[in-house]
C-alpha cells in the first residue's frame, strides 16, 4: 500500500490511483479533472481549479496602510488636544486596523509560497489564523473602548464637538474608502473579510464620532461622546462575532460554512458507478481553498471486462467526481480512496463499514465522460 504524505487526515489504504494535485513537492502541475488508472494500492487525487486561489491585493494593502498610518497620527494628536475619548478610541481602533492590514497582507504573501517537504500544503493556513487574530484583536480593542466610555460617563470631561466632528469626518473618507477597496476580496476570502471588517467598523466608529460632535456642539452635553462610543462598540461586536466564530471553525478544521456535507455526500452517491461511500472528510486548507478525502466503493466489475476497461471506468468516474466537487462545491483538493465492492471491509483502523454493492453492470455500456 502506498501513502499520501500531504494528506495526514486519512490513513493510506486504497485500490487504484489517479493523480492531479498541484501542491506536490516537485511543484509540477498535472491535468485538471482527468483520471488516470495506475493499478491497485493507491489513492486518487483530483485536480483542483484556481478560481478560488487567493488574489493579490498587495497594492491595496499598501495604500490602506499608508493612509491609515497618517490618519492615525493626526487623529491621536487632535484627540489629546480636544480631550475627546471618541477620537482617542477611534485612533486606537485605527492602530489595530494598521496592524490587522499588515497581518492580512503578510498572511496572503505566506499563502502564496511554494509548498515544501515540511509544509506540503504551503503556508495557506496562515490566512485562517490571521482572520482569527483580526477578530480577536477587534473584540479586545472594542472592549477597551467600552471600558473607557464607562469611565468617562462617571468622570465626564469637556469635549470640543466641532473639532472631533471635522477630524472624524476625514476618518470616514479614509476608512470608508479603504473598506471599499477591500470589499472585492471580502466576499470569498475570510482573511480579506477580517481586514475589510476592521476598516468598515472604523468608518462606522468615525460616523458615530461625527454625530456625537454635532450633538455636543448643539447641546453642550459632553456625555454624548462616551454614549456614542458605547453604541458603536455594540454594533462592532455584533458584526465581528460571526467573523470570530467562522475563523475559529476553520482553525479547528471545521467544514466551511458555504459547504453542506450532506449535499456533497448525496452528489457523490448519485454519480453512476458509485455503490457506497464512507469516511467523508472536508476541511479548509486556507480561507479560499478546501480539501476532501472520501472512501468510494464502486460497482462490481463484470467478468467480461479487461483490466484496461476496468481502469478506464475508474478513471472516468474519478474525473467526473473531481469536476463535480470543483464546480458545484468549490472543493479543489479531493483525494479518493477506491475500495473493493463486495465481500470486504474497509482496511482503515477503526472502520467497520462493510462493502455492499448492487449487481455488476454491463462493461461495454458503462463509460461516462465528464
Mean pLDDT across every amino acid position: 76
Low-confidence stretches: 1-42, 47-54, 356-362, 364-370
Main β-sheet: number of strands, strand sense, barrel status? 5 strands, mixed
Provide the succession of SSEs.
EEHHHHHHHEEHE
Structural class: alpha/beta
* Backbone shape: elongated
Write structural notes for this entry.
The chain has 370 residues and is of the alpha/beta class. The chain is built from eight helices and five strands. It has a five-stranded mixed beta sheet with strand order 1-2-5-4-3, with helices on one face. Helix 4 packs antiparallel against helix 5. The radius of gyration is 27 Å and the shape is elongated. The chain starts with 17 loop residues before the first strand and ends in a 31-residue tail after the last strand. The relative contact order is 0.15. The N terminus and C terminus are likely disordered.
Amino acid at each position: 500500500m502506498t501513502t499520501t504524505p500531504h494528506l495526514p487526515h486519512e490513513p493510506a489504504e486504497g485500490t487504484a490511483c489517479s493523480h492531479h494535485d498541484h501542491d506536490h513537492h516537485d511543484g509540477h502541475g498535472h491535468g485538471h479533472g482527468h483520471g488516470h488508472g495506475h493499478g491497485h494500492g493507491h489513492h486518487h487525487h483530483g485536480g483542483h481549479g484556481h478560481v478560488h486561489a487567493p488574489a493579490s491585493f498587495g497594492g491595496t494593502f499598501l495604500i490602506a496602510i499608508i493612509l491609515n498610518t497618517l490618519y492615525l497620527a493626526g487623529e491621536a494628536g487632535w484627540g489629546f488636544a480636544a480631550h475627546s475619548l471618541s477620537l482617542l478610541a477611534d485612533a486606537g481602533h485605527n492602530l489595530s486596523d494598521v496592524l490587522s492590514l499588515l497581518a492580512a497582507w503578510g498572511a496572503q504573501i505566506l499563502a502564496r509560497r511554494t509548498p515544501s517537504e515540511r509544509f506540503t500544503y504551503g503556508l495557506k493556513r496562515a490566512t485562517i489564523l490571521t482572520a482569527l487574530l483580526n477578530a480577536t484583536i477587534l473584540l479586545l480593542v472594542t472592549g477597551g473602548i467600552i471600558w473607557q466610555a464607562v469611565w468617562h460617563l462617571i468622570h465626564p470631561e469637556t469635549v470640543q464637538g466641532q473639532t472631533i466632528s471635522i477630524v472624524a469626518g476625514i476618518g470616514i473618507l479614509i476608512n470608508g474608502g479603504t473598506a471599499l477597496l477591500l470589499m472585492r476580496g471580502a466576499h470569498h476570502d475570510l482573511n480579506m473579510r477580517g481586514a475589510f471588517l476592521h476598516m468598515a467598523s472604523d468608518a462606522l466608529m468615525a460616523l458615530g464620532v461625527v454625530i456625537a460632535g454635532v450633538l455636543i456642539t448643539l447641546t453642550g452635553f459632553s456625555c454624548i461622546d462616551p454614549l456614542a462610543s458605547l453604541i458603536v462598540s455594540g454594533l462592532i461586536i455584533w458584526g465581528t462575532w460571526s467573523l470570530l466564530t467562522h475563523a475559529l471553525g476553520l482553525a479547528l478544521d471545521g467544514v466551511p460554512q458555504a459547504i453542506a456535507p450532506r449535499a456533497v455526500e448525496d452528489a457523490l452517491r448519485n454519480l453512476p458507478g458509485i455503490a457506497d461511500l464512507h469516511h467523508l472528510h472536508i476541511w479548509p486548507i486556507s480561507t479560499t481553498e478546501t480539501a476532501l478525502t472520501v472512501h468510494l466503493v464502486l460497482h462490481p466489475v463484470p467478468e467480461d471486462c479487461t483490466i484496461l476497461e476496468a481502469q478506464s471506468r475508474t478513471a472516468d468516474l474519478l474525473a467526473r467526481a473531481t469536476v463535480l466537487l470543483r464546480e458545484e462545491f468549490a472543493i479543489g483538493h479531493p483525494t479518493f480512496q477506491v475500495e473493493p465492492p463486495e465481500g470486504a471491509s474497509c482496511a482503515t483502523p477503526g472502520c467497520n463499514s462493510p462493502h455492499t454493492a448492487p449487481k455488476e453492470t454491463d462493461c461495454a455500456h458503462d463509460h461516462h465522460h465528464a
